[in-house]
Each structure stands twice: as structure tokens, then as C-alpha cells.
Amino acid sequence: MSPRVTLAVAARVLTQLRRDRRTLAMLLVVPCVLIALLAWMYADVGSATFDRVGPALLAIFPFVVMFLVTSVTTLRERSSGTLERLLSMPTGRLDLLLGYALAFGLVAAVQAALAVGVSVGLLDLDVVGPVWLLGVVAVADAVLGTALGLFVSAFARTEFQAVQFMPALVVPQILLCGLFVPRDLLPDVLGALSDVLPLSYATDAMLHLTTSATTGAVWRDLGVVVGFAVAGLALGAVTLRRRTP
Predict the structure, then answer these.
(1) Any one cellular component term from GO for this entry (predicted)?
(2) Please, are residues 89 and 178 in contact by the beta-carbon 8 Å criterion?
(3) Residue 6 Cα to chain centre, angstroms
(4) Does residue 101 sit within a domain?
(5) Does 244 fall in a domain?
(6) pLDDT tier at 244, thresholds 50, 70, 90
(7) What's the mean per-residue pLDDT of the chain?
(8) Of the candidates 82, 109, 106, 80, the residue with the CA atom closest to the CA atom of residue 96
């Protein structure tokens, strides 16, 4: 692994993103718009409802968006031969994956700042814990989505197939993370399954920040999310192929 190569890969990805305005809009604007839409939906129901589901959505949206963008972008580079050319140079697999993670992590930081700013500053989401820690959890969750997107891109041959991993890897996590039913009220089997899904811990961390002033549980959940992200990057390095057969 070479820090210079990793930074060069990250710079190249950021340059591509800067030129792709539609992708930038999806990364930065869409989560804010969706959160605002949800707050509008609950405007006549009461702020308590938005205070309950808003933190979970701050965990879900960065994860989903980064998963989609990363898996499709990586597959596009593999099918076009760009990935093969990069790996034929003094670029290791880990350098490539860490470069992608660093680039998308920086974008995720901006995304999290915008989403948290809109939720707390404009939509009056009630936050008891530190607001900056809310952003940290959102960034970690976005990096988790990036890591899983890099991992699943190795098993898809087309961009459409990459999107098809959504029902298998993303939707079950959304259903079981506590957004619809609190995790402690799930049936035993589903509760046990929820306990091994990373999005559950990201959602728990967000909920802790909006219901409790103590941050010990938040850091514990954040550590689990980061652990899953590191494992996803490691698996991505093992399964990364030069090109799609």
C-alpha cells in the first residue's frame, strides 16, 4: 500500500465526480430533499413522529445513496477497462479501494453536513446529544455503503445487476433497522437477524443522540459500523477483479 497512490486514486475519483453533475446532485441534494419531503408529510401529524423516524433516515439515506453510486461507478470503470489499466500500473488493490473510500468519504462528509444541517437547522429535528456526533455517524454510515458497494461490484457484470443487489443486501437492513418497528419489538428470529446487520447499529446510534444525552452507547454502535466498513473494504480487496468477464 502506498499513501501517494491512494491519494492519487482519490483525487481522480473526486475529479470525475466534480464533472458529473447528476451524480453530485444525487449525492448531495437528494438526501436533503427526501428528508424535507418526509418532514412535510408529517407536518400535520406532529413533530414527535418526525423526531422518531428522522434520525433513522439520517442513517439510511447516506448508506443507500453511497451503495448505489459506488457499486455502479466501480462496475462502469471495470467494464470500460479503466480498472484494468489502473491495476496494470503500480496500483495495488488496497490502494484502489482506499482511494475510492477516501474520495467518497469526503463527499459523505459534505453530504452529512448538509443533511444534518437541514434536519436540525431547518426542520427542527430534536437532538439531545452533540450535533457534530450526528454528522460523524452519518459519515461512517456512508463509508459503510461505499465499502459494501465496492464489495458487491465484484459479483455483477452490468450496472443493472449491481442495482439488483439492493433487494438482497440493502432492503432487509432498512426493514429490520428499527425504522418501522422498534428492534426490541421484533419477533425473536428477526431480532436476532437485526443484531448482525450494520445498519441497525447506525440507526441505534442516531436514535441515542436524539433521546439521550449520554454518548457511550453511540460510540459503541459507531465502532460496530466502522468495523463492518473495514471488513467490507477487506472483502472488496480480496474479490476485486481487473475486468468483468
Answers:
(1) ATP-binding cassette (ABC) transporter complex
(2) no
(3) 20
(4) yes
(5) no
(6) very low
(7) 82
(8) 82
